[in-house]
């Protein structure tokens, strides 16, 4: 792609301007990555931001390139991105960002996970049921084989985070009884100082299962809240109160916004929580259906009070931006590609 053509494309995106979209003096700029096809093989991740006040997208520098595999970050929190080994980090990366690389392990019995501040390697087989936590270059083994909370269940790691300034590592699992139509949440808090853990489990009806089982890529863990999409409802599991709490205003807004126009006849709709950046919640829906040859994607942003503050619609090769009142304020060409089904990547926090 020529420099002039590339510059023109970037100019189109960065020129999406309107008058201030909502009366709020707080500047809300959500960091993001978009993905560009440089040639027949090489793809590039470009750093940008969604200026919600001005209803525009600004694109900045290229961060890294990749040719194969999943090019999105393994985890992105704050100014730190952990990337796969297959990417090539560019020389002139924004100095405010720290880019690291990690190895993915995915076999029949082992699976690696990346979280804010720590990594986790799960090994589940007939002989083992354990997780190896790596925090500050020190390993901690969590052996769960004889723990009653995990017996006779199909268990999946939903998410994890550090608590109390890194003294506690929290893991949250979804679990399904092998002989019953019941589902549970299992909460494990590992004390790094005492080298011991506490675990509890509680029932939550109709947790997502199968291909939609809760995973770190489609949930957000924020201390005692696990944000998920469950039974066509957006909300969070309160890990203290042991119940699912629907964010009813968000659910209503999501399901009333262009629902019929983009109803997908092939797959069930799925609205995924992807980030909680300060007081802003970010959700995406990659299941939009334009026609048999054209796909779409919606990005939703909401305040802590569940009020809509902006939306992005990708329809084929066009981008549309909406204000807090769901009014379209701009549109332009969007000459970028999807990676792992998504047009954008956002930090989780």
Automatic annotation (TrEMBL):
<protein>
    <recommendedName>
        <fullName>Lipoprotein</fullName>
    </recommendedName>
</protein>
């Amino acid at each position: 792609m020529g420099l002039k053509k590339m510059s023109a494309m970037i100019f189109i995106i960065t020129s999406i301007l309107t008058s201030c979209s909502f009366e709020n003096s707080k500047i809300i700029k959500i960091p993001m990555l978009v993905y560009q096809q440089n040639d027949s093989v090489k793809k590039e991740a470009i750093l940008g931001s969604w200026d919600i006040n001005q209803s525009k997208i600004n694109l900045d520098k290229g961060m890294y390139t990749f040719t194969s595999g999943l090019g999105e970050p393994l985890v992105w929190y704050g100014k730190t991105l952990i990337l796969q080994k297959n990417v090539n980090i560019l020389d002139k990366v924004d100095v405010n960002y720290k880019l690291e690389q990690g190895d993915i392990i995915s076999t029949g019995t082992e699976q690696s996970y990346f979280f804010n501040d720590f990594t986790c390697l799960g090994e589940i087989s007939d002989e083992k049921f354990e997780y190896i936590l790596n925090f500050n270059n020190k390993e901690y083994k969590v052996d769960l084989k004889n723990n009653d909370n995990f017996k006779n269940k199909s268990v999946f790691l939903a998410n994890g985070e550090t608590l109390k300034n890194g003294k506690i590592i929290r893991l949250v699992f979804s679990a399904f009884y092998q002989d019953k139509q019941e589902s549970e949440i299992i909460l494990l808090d590992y004390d790094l100082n005492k080298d011991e853990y506490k675990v509890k489990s509680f029932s939550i009806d109709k947790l997502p299962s199968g291909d939609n089982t809760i995973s770190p890529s489609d949930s957000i863990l924020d201390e005692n809240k696990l944000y998920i999409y469950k039974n066509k409802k957006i909300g969070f599991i309160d890990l203290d109160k042991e119940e699912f709490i629907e964010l009813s205003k968000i659910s209503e807004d999501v399901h009333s916004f262009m629902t019929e126009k983009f109803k997908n006849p092939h797959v069930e709709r799925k609205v995924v929580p992807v980030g909680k950046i300060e007081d802003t919640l970010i959700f995406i829906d990659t299941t939009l259906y334009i026609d048999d040859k054209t796909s779409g994607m919606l990005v939703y942003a909401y305040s802590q009070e569940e009020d809509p503050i902006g939306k992005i619609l990708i329809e084929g090769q066009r981008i549309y931006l909406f204000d807090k009142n769901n009014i379209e304020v701009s549109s332009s060409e969007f000459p970028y590609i999807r990676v792992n089904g998504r047009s954008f990547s956002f930090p989780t926090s």
